[in-house]
Amino acid sequence: MAADVYFHSLEPAAGQELLPVDPGPCLALMVDRLGLTGASRRASPWGLKVQVGEQGLPPAIDPAWARAVAEALAGPGAANSPSGAVCFDTLSITTTGLDQADTHLEMAMAKGFGSNGRGLPFLVADGPDQGDSLAVDLSGDSGIAQLTLASALKGFAGICLLAPVRPHPHAGFQGALVNMGVGLVDRAGKLLLHQDIRPKVNTPLCAGCGSCQAVCLFDAISMTAGRAMIDAKKCTGCGECMNVCFMAGISAEEAAGIPLFQKKVAAAALAARDTVSSGRSDRFGYFNLLVRLDRHAGRAKGRGRTRMGDVGVLASRDPVALDRATWDLIVARSGGPLDVWSGFSQEPGSLLDHAEKLGLGSQDYRLVEF
Ligand code: SF4
Ligand code: SF4
Predict the structure, then answer these.
(1) Per CATH, which fold does 3-195+257-369 belong to?
(2) Is the CB of 275 under 6 A from ligand 1?
(3) Pocket test for ligand 2, best of 92, 195, 201, 230 (most atoms within 8 A of CB)
(4) Cα separation of 138 and 144, whole Å?
(5) In this structure, which residue's CA is closest to atom 4 in ligand 2?
(6) Ligand 2 pocket member 240 (CB < 6 A)
C-alpha cells in the first residue's frame, strides 16, 4: 500500500522571493497530520534531531522550527512548556567545531539552541557526557556487521528527524535516511560508514585554490605544484573536500564504494530505528525541509546552476516514501541532470532500494498536498 507523504509548499509568490520563509507553522500542522500531537506527554522525552550547521551560517534547522514541532508534540495547552522534547545532534566528521562535543555545544548555543530564552534543551548525543556508545548489529549485506550509535538514543521515547535537504556527495541528497543512518550514528560509526570511499582529484580540473585542504579535518590533502593531492592513507572518505570544490574537481567513483556506503546507511538507519522504543513506528516522525536550498547547494560555489530556493516541507511516517518523494521533487524542479543542482553525479538508488528491502518503508507513495 502506498505510504502517505504530506507536502506543504513554501514557494514565494512573485515579488516575495527575498522574504525569509517560516516553516514553523507548517511543521506543527505536519505533526498533527502524522498523528503525533500530544505524543510527548510521556515519562521520557522525545528527541528532535536537528543540525546546527557551520560556523558563520544560519542554523541548518532553526531553533524556532524545532520549538514549533516540540509544542505540537506536547499538544494543546503546553505551548509554554514543551518539556517533553530535547534537541540533539551528533559529532561531525566533516565540519570544524562540530567534531568536538564542547565546541559543538558552544556553536549550538550561539545559534539559539539550549534552554536559555525560548530554546529547547540541546545535547550532543554522542558526547562524553552521554556514556558509552551503543553497539548494534547491522542487517543485510552491507559489509560491516556492527557499528556504534549515539548513546543518548536509548533515552528517547520517540524521535522526530528534521532534515535540512541538501546535496550529499555520496547519496545524491541528504534527507530522512541519511539523517537517520548517518546522523544517529556516533563519530566512530560514521568513520566506519565512509571507510570504503576514497575520493580522487581530477588534476586537470584543479585550480589550486586550496579550499579542499582547508576543510579536511584529517590533514589528508596537500598542495603539490599548485594542485591538490589526497593521501589515501589519511583520507576517511568523509566527502567534505567534494562539497567545497567549486571546480567539481574531486569525485568518488561508483566502484570506490558508493553503493556500499548507501547500503550501510540503510542498515544503520534500521538499527537506529529499532534501538528507539523497539522500532515502534508510532514513535517516529520524519520531516524533509526543502528550504534555503540554494544556500546549501551554493557551498560548492559556481556548480549548482539551478535555483530552487525555498520549495516546501515534506513529512511522513515512512522514511523511504518520504525520501523517494523528496528525490522525485528535486529531480522535477532541477529540470535537468541532477548535478546541475547538486554538483554531484550520485543518485540515492542503492539507499532507497536497500532501505525498502530491509523493511524500513516503501518507495510507493501518495503525495498529499495541503
Ligand atoms: S578545492 Fe578543487 S580546485 Fe581548489 S585546490 Fe581543491 S581540488 Fe583544486
Ligand atoms: S581528503 Fe578525504 S578526509 Fe579529507 S575532506 Fe576529502 S574525503 Fe574527507
Answers:
(1) Rossmann fold (3.40.50)
(2) no
(3) 230
(4) 7
(5) 216
(6) yes
150-209 pLDDT, tens digit per residue, is 999 988 999 999 999 988 999 989 999 999 999 999 999 999 999 999 999 999 999 999
Three-state SS for the chain is CCEEEEEEECCCCCCCCCCCCCCHHHHHHHHHHCCCCCCCCCCCCEEEECCCCCCCCCCCCCHHHHHHHHHHHHCCCCCCCCCCEEEEECCCCCCCCCCCHHHHHHHHHHCCCCCCCCCCCEEECCCHHHCCCEEEECCCCCCCCEEEECHHHHHCCEEEEEEECEEECCCEEECHHHHHHCCCECHHHHHHHHCCCCCEECHHHCCCCCHHHHHCCCCCEEEECCEEEECCCCCCCCCHHHHHCCCCCEECCHHHCHHHHHHHHHHHHHHHHHHCHHHCHHHEEEEEEECCHHHHHCCCCCCCCCCCCCCEEEEECCHHHHHHHHHHHHHHHHCCCCHHHHCCCCCCHHHHHHHHHCCCCCCCEEEEEC
Q: Where are the domains of the chain?
A: 3-195+257-369, 200-251
Centroid of ligand 1 to alpha carbon of 324 (angstroms) = 32
Is the CB of residue 221 less than 8 Å from the CB of residue 213?
yes
Please give the Cα distance from 14 to 35 (Å, whole number). Answer: 34
Which grid cell is 32?
A: 498533527
CB atoms < 10 A from the CB of 117, how many?
8
CATH architecture of the domain covering 200-251:
2-Layer Sandwich (3.30)
Ligand 1 atom nearest residue 213's Cα: 6
Which ligand gives the minimal distance to the CA of 238? 2
Nearest ligand atom owner, CA of 225: 1
Instruction: For residues 82 and 299, give the distance between their C-alpha atoms in angstroms, rounded to a whole number.
Output: 34
What are the tens digits of pLDDT across the range 259-308? Answer: 999 999 999 999 999 998 776 878 999 999 998 776 555 444 445 445 66
What is the number of the ligand closest to the CA of 195?
2
* 216 C-beta closer than 6 A to ligand 2: yes
Global pTM exceeds 0.85: yes
> Is 212 a pocket residue for ligand 1 (Cβ < 6 Å)?
yes
